[in-house]
Design a protein that fits this description.
about 800 residues; 29 helices; about 45% helix; alpha/beta; elongated; 19 strands
Length: about 800
């Protein structure tokens, strides 16, 4: 809901955010209340001495030790009774606030309006509680020396005072966290807008002042998040650009962070319901959703029988190890938690430029910005050597300089692949995150750019920095010099995440000078290239992405669509916020997708799901680079025992994705972040290959990619279908003489058996998954019609299935 207004100031929390905090505080205060009551009523010292007249003992010159004991016991009793009253009042107020906070909906706070008055009362009680806690602490600490030794339970009230003070401190910290530095100005603008006495000119001035203060607030927040920023002009410009983007994005939104969280949960539920409906209704010929992506008969899948595509696929797996290695020690330790420390220590001490001089190589990389002993550089080499893919590779140049618009990168010579590999690290620091945030489009400085080639501003600046660095140190000119062994090697650019975006744009900038270069991008940013630049990049850029990766779906237009969808869902929902968030966390009560049906018409979900939403005209759409391979998977329910193997419970497939339409919407899911990690992507790429050769499936082995062979219909003559090889292994190489140049066509026609009898044609349903096993043949998954086959040629198995309807499908051969 809109931020709550207290003390003539807007705060970064809503009145419906107080349910859980107030219940927790009420429970804690009630627990303290019970403890104090039990302590006062059961403590032997307090019960025994509470009714003793202290003045009488003093007047009668009673034993000093006894008088002190009575005095201490009665002091504890008075302090405890004071706390009982304060805690009882606080508990009642907190329960009342929590009850009112449960009323209404997210964007309809009218029923929660009394909360502000109860909060004022709670503030007064809180101040009284603070003053009483301070006074109690002073009295108890002042009498500590004489009371704690003679009163065995004296420590208990001191502990209660400490707990209450800690709770109060936590509340103060939370209040500081939800403090809005522009809240006062926002309240004034809101009051002036709702009133009628303020002139239009005055109101415009106030709104301009609010915009200026909010932009400064974003700059301050970004600087606090990026605590290691320097004061260079580059950094200040980046902060200004990022603040402008965030300010424009949230300009007209009066939402608090919990509203966005609730909106994401609602959007996730809506997306799930929409996918179920589209699958049920066979919308757009969708067979199923894998990783929330629709798969149909028209989906283009990776063709591993095509040698060209197979080679590219193997290269994508191979060079992904360079992208992983570029992250250095952190990622190496994460994925090698048991042996990582020992190996890294040995590598740092005994690698290139380490202390073990006998093990030093005569060729070590030119290094900038590394630590003592070139530790990070040695770990990069270690990561490459341990990958299991890469052999005979030497790093010749590496830069660890990291600043705004400056990414670490290294150049290596891979003698096994006969390639020079330039690898750029992805996002790993707050400086990199600031570079990511400067997402407005600018022209790419490349020869032949007609003005339509644009790219992500922060990433273009990074690419320009690396290009200048390469020219300054003459790295490429030396590596490709005619006198070097690597003169005829391929030039490969590699990167992951932000590094993938930099590698893609840098490859565009270097392509005129190195027309044979290739670029492998892993999980690049979605808002990277303009349409014309993206289309031209498909010639030499290969991109791989896993499942629901959020980064490739993140650009300014996609974020604006997400913002609008969240806002619309928050307006429509009739559920209170606490039920949305707690129901998603604990999965308690009804499934929240059932609750959604109360406020979103199910018949309109599919229509709404297809809408891309409207963003502001200021956000020019940018696209991910190159030819994209999208790895998706299907999970099978394991009905075996808990001790059975789950090795084959997930099947991986790879789709060729459309840059312009495939990643237009952010998919809200639990793995939208984990699918971005390079190691997860590499594991998925490896499993695509293993499942492709192990299992037979219509999506993994169907002939759906374009073939180099011409497209002609299937015509099979003189084929004896009683040949046992057709039923066991499929056509062998000996049948290839009569079956040549068969290719695929997606056209299908449905024919009944009765009509086939009149033409002498018969249904031969042997072409089903698992029957054709010849390595040079591709299985199709539908039954087929074979013309000109005599009835006598059909065996009993075929005759038993003649009543079936056959889909005419063409084949690859």
């Amino acid at each position: 809901m809109p931020g709550i207004v207290l003390f003539k100031r807007r705060w970064l929390t809503g009145s419906d955010d107080l349910v859980l905090p107030c219940f927790i505080l009420a429970l804690l205060h009630f627990t303290l209340l019970i403890v104090i009551i039990v302590y006062v009523t059961t403590s032997p010292d307090i019960v025994q001495y509470s009714s003793v007249d202290l003045n009488y003992l003093v007047g009668r010159n009673a034993n000093a030790s006894f008088v002190t004991k009575v005095s201490c016991a009665q002091q504890v009793r008075r302090i405890s009774f004071g706390y009982v009253g304060l805690l009882a009042g606080a508990t009642l107020l907190e329960l009342t606030i929590a009850r009112f906070s449960m009323l209404g909906t997210i964007l309809n706070p009218e029923k929660r309006e009394p909360i502000s008055y109860f909060l004022y009362f709670r503030f007064v009680v809180g101040i009284s509680e603070l003053a009483y806690t301070i006074g109690a602490a002073v009295h108890l600490s002042g009498n500590w020396d004489k009371c704690h030794s003679i009163l065995s339970s004296y420590n208990i009230p001191i502990a209660l005072v400490g707990i209450n003070a800690s709770v109060f401190l936590i509340v103060v910290l939370v209040a500081l966290f939800v403090f809005d530095s522009t809240g006062r100005i926002f309240y004034r603008v809101k009051t002036a807008t709702e009133g009628s006495s303020t002139s239009t000119e005055r109101l415009q001035i106030m709104r301009s002042k609010l915009d200026i203060h909010r932009k400064k607030s974003w700059q301050s927040s970004l600087r606090d998040c990026c605590c290691c920023l320097n004061n260079s002009q580059n950094t200040q410009n980046a902060l200004d650009d990022a603040a402008d983007i965030f300010h424009e994005f949230f300009r007209d939104l009066d939402l608090v962070p919990s509203d966005i969280l609730a909106g994401l949960i609602l959007l996730r539920k809506e997306q799930k319901v929409a996918r179920k409906l589209r699958t049920l209704h066979k919308s757009d010929s969708i067979e199923e959703y894998l990783c929330e992506h629709p798969v149909s008969d028209e989906s283009l899948l990776l063709n591993l029988t095509n040698q060209v595509e197979l080679d590219v696929y193997h290269d994508q797996m191979y060079y992904c190890n360079y992208a992983i290695a570029s992250y250095g020690p952190l990622f190496y330790y994460i994925y090698n938690p048991l042996t990582g420390v020992c190996k890294m220590t040995h590598s740092c001490m005994c690698g290139h430029n380490g202390c073990c001089l006998s093990n030093q190589s005569s060729h070590y990389p030119l290094t900038y910005g590394d630590h003592c002993f070139n530790c990070r550089t040695n770990v990069v080499q270690l990561s490459l050597d341990d990958s299991g893919y890469i052999q005979d590779t030497e790093i010749i140049y590496i830069s660890w300089n990291n600043d705004v618009y400056q990414q670490p990168f290294f150049v290596a010579i891979d003698h096994n692949k006969r390639s020079v590999v330039l690898t750029i690290r992805g996002t790993l620091s707050e400086l990199d995150a600031l570079t990511d945030a400067v997402a407005s489009p600018i022209h790419i400085p490349v020869e032949g750019n007609d003005g339509t080639w644009k790219g992500h501003k922060g990433i273009v600046s990074c690419a320009s920095y690396i290009q200048a660095k390469l020219l300054e140190d003459e790295i490429l000119s030396q590596v490709f010099h005619s006198s070097c062994k690597s003169a005829n090697y391929k030039f490969i650019l590699v990167g992951h995440s932000l590094g993938a975006g930099v590698a893609a744009i840098l490859s565009i900038m270097l392509h005129p000078a190195y027309p044979q270069l290739e670029c492998y991008c892993y999980a690049p940013p979605g808002g990277l290239l303009s349409f014309s630049a993206m289309e031209s990049s498909k010639v030499y850029i290969q991109t791989a992405v896993l499942g629901n990766d959020v980064v490739i779906r993140t650009g300014l237009p996609q974020l604006e669509v997400l913002r609008n969808k969240i806002t619309n869902l928050l307006k429509k929902t009739q559920l209170p916020k606490y039920r949305i968030i707690l129901g998603n966390i604990f999965h308690c009560g009804k499934d929240s997708s059932d609750d959604m049906s109360q406020h979103i018409e199910m018949s309109n979900i599919t229509e709404n799901f297809n809408e891309t939403g409207e963003g502001s005209n200021s956000a020019e759409k940018l696209y991910p680079p190159g030819k994209i391979l999208h790895v998706i998977y299907r999970k099978h329910e394991d009905k075996g025992s808990w001790f059975s193997s789950r090795k084959d419970s997930v099947e991986y497939y790879a789709l060729h994705a459309d840059n312009a339409n495939h990643f237009n919407e952010i998919i809200v899911s639990g793995n939208m972040i984990s699918h971005h990690f390079p190691q997860e992507l590499l594991k998925a790429l490896e499993k695509v290959q293993s499942y492709r050769t192990k299992n037979s499936d219509k999506y993994s082995q169907a002939a759906t990619l374009e073939s180099h062979a011409p497209l002609i219909p299937t015509t099979i003559n003189n084929l004896q279908v009683t040949d046992q090889r057709l039923w066991d292994e499929g056509p062998s190489s000996s049948t290839n003489e009569t079956n040549q140049n068969f290719s695929s066509n997606t056209q299908q026609s449905t024919l009944a058996h009765s009509s086939l009898n009149n033409t002498g044609k018969h249904i031969v349903p042997w072409l089903i998954p698992g029957f054709l096993k010849s390595e040079n043949k591709i299985v199709i998954h539908t039954t087929c019609v074979f013309p000109d086959i005599e009835t006598s040629a059909l065996n009993d198995h075929v005759m038993q299935q003649q009543e079936q309807v056959c889909n005419l499908t063409y084949l690859y051969f």
